Amino acid sequence: MSTSEQAYLQLLRDVLQNGVRKDDRTGTGTISTFGYQMRFPLSEGFPLLTTKRVPFKLVASELLWFIKGDTNIRNLLQHNNNIWNEWAFKRWVESEDYSGPDMTNFGLRSQTDTAFAKQYMEQMNLFKERILADSDFAAAYGELGDVYGKQWRDWKKAQGGSIDQLKDVISSIKNNPDSRRLIVTAWNPEDVPSMALPPCHTMFQFYVSEGKLSCQLYQRSGDIFLGIPFNIASYALLTHLIAHECGLGVGDFVHTLGDAHIYSNHMEQIEIQLSRDPKPLPKLLLNTDKQSVFDFEMEDLSLEAYDPHPTIKAPVAV
């Protein structure tokens, strides 16, 4: 049985049994624990959960969006990726330019008010259509601020200019693999106020040993049911891509969490997931004709033998 999936399922159990109840920014309420670590041996298979379907195309398109340094949801929507919509939509409905129905607390209200939920979906669909059709509107309201892609690829320097952290760390892995400074950080205190969502996965570090590349992520805040499965798969994919460019095998992905929490409206979903038996992990397939991380597109990435249990839907806390 995969130790990778068991590590995640044990996190669910530990927080359910030992977590503390806490209020949160979204008003939903959580059960939370502070300080938790999981290890995923990437040689076992690609760590995409099998106890529920996790959409690999959404994981991959978001990661490629980060890698390209993009911070606008338009590119994601062009790939039918909707995972950042709510944060851009929130900026739109709170702006002076918005004149539609009141969307205050749309995340919570849409869960309990059927009439409002219909109204919310109508406004969200109009918003998405306008982002795709109107480049000026997309530039103004599809933009999320200086989130991950900006920090990874274009970290601004106090004296002017910028640092391409991702490009630099790949160069260091190739030329100085024993360095203890193989780090990329997304947490930029100066830019946090301008971000639609401050980075949850804040810093990652690479480690080369015996011809294999490992990665450790520090994540300050993690939605265990919805977010963390994406984060595990995303950083596993990033490790595979960088290992490929650097001519290395893959080692472990180590996931270190700060505030790891289960939202109070995800309890029934987690009970369903924990009742299921894990299946074999899939295998990641890369187009080996592509050498650089920065050249990969969606058609260059695929999975083999992914046969998960069905999707379990749950609301996103915004």
UniProtKB/TrEMBL annotation:
Report which reactions are catalysed by this protein: dUMP + (6R)-5,10-methylene-5,6,7,8-tetrahydrofolate = 7,8-dihydrofolate + dTMP
Domain Thymidylate synthase/dCMP hydroxymethylase spans what residues? 6-318
For this record, the Gene Ontology CC terms, alphabetical, are: cytosol
UniProt enzyme class: transferase
Record's Pfam families? Answer: Thymidylat_synt
Query: One biological-process term from Gene Ontology?
Result: methylation
> Gene3D superfamilies this protein is in?
Thymidylate synthase/dCMP hydroxymethylase domain
EC id = 2.1.1.45
Q: Where's it found, cell-wise?
A: Cytoplasm
Q: So where's the catalytic machinery, residue-wise?
A: 200
UniProt keywords (A-Z) are:
Cytoplasm, Methyltransferase, Nucleotide biosynthesis, Transferase
Q: Mainly localized where? A: cytoplasm
Binding residues for dUMP: 25, 180-181, 220-223, 231, 261-263
Kindly state the subunit structure of this protein. Answer: Homodimer.
Q: Any idea what this protein is called?
A: Thymidylate synthase
- Organism encoding this protein: Paenibacillus paeoniae
Q: Which gene encodes it?
A: thyA
